[in-house]
Amino acid sequence: MSDQKQDEPKNKIPYEGDAILIEGRVKNIEREQENQRARDEKYKDDQLLINKLLAGFTGGLLVTGILTVLVYFDLAITSKRSAEAAQESAAAANNAARISGNTLLLSRDQFRAGLRPYVSVTKMLLLGELKEGRKIKGRAEIVNSGRIPAVDLSGCADFALLPNGSPMTDDFPCPAANNPKRLPGAEISKFTLGSGAPFPLDSPGTSISPVNKLLPLLPSGALRIYFYGDLTYTDILNPKVTHHTTFCGRYNIATNSLDVCEKHNWMD
């Protein structure tokens, strides 16, 4: 008994073993807390890095999107300008074609105008005497001053006695309504007049009665005697177009000749 008592530690503290265990557990807890804080810090750092990367990626996407929009906007502007340029080019081409066509038409018209026939009256004469029972005639000398023949030329020449209040007009009909010479339905002669050669056109014979009462009205202008007429013709360059010429001479009792009228003298 005494030996066993001698083997036991003499200075043993009753709670020494439990204290060591508690201290070990506290240290383990502290280490665990340190490790947890380290893990938390690392997690925070990792999250911050991830957030930065995501922010950078998002910013990159935003920049890329903006650049893409700008590129498409620039392409749209370029396409619009190209379309406008194409429209302007098309308009310029159409305008050039129109000008070219107008120039061609003008050249054609000028060519025709330089060659076409021009029939005019160069001289008017009074044939006969104004005496009771006698007939007078008028003669118009017509000339084609163009370079090609006048085709289907037909004409009318007549006398008209008109009061001062109703002088000759550009559209006065031939023959005169009050001096018919042509029977209704009668054939109208047509011929071809070459360039340069004069051709006479005479009116039918006309008698003025009563001369002794009408002649005194001529010097005062109360009555006027007109020799006038119309001519129509075509040409081989443009056969669908009819050309017109009119002529008129007013009888001058003092000179026994015909003076050119103010009206009914024109040609196209």
Task: Write out key terms for the chains shown.
single chain, 268 residues, alpha+beta, Immunoglobulin-like, 2 domains, 6-stranded antiparallel beta sheet, 4-stranded antiparallel beta sheet, 4 helices, 10 strands
How would you describe this structure to a colleague?
The protein is of the alpha+beta class and about 270 residues long. It folds into 2 domains: about 15-115; about 120-265, Immunoglobulin-like, CATH 2.60.40. It has 4 helices and 10 strands; from the N terminus they run H-H-E-E-E-E-E-E-H-H-E-E-E-E. The strands form 2 sheets. Strands 3, 4, 7, 8, 9 and 10 form a 6-stranded antiparallel sheet that branches. Strands 1, 2, 5 and 6 form a 4-stranded antiparallel sheet that branches. It is rod-shaped, with a radius of gyration of 61 Å. The relative contact order is 0.12.
Give the topology, please.
Elements: H1 2-7, H2 16-115, E1 119-127, E2 135-144, E3 150-163, E4 191-193, E5 199-202, E6 206-207, H3 211-214, H4 217-220, E7 223-234, E8 243-252, E9 257-260, E10 266-267
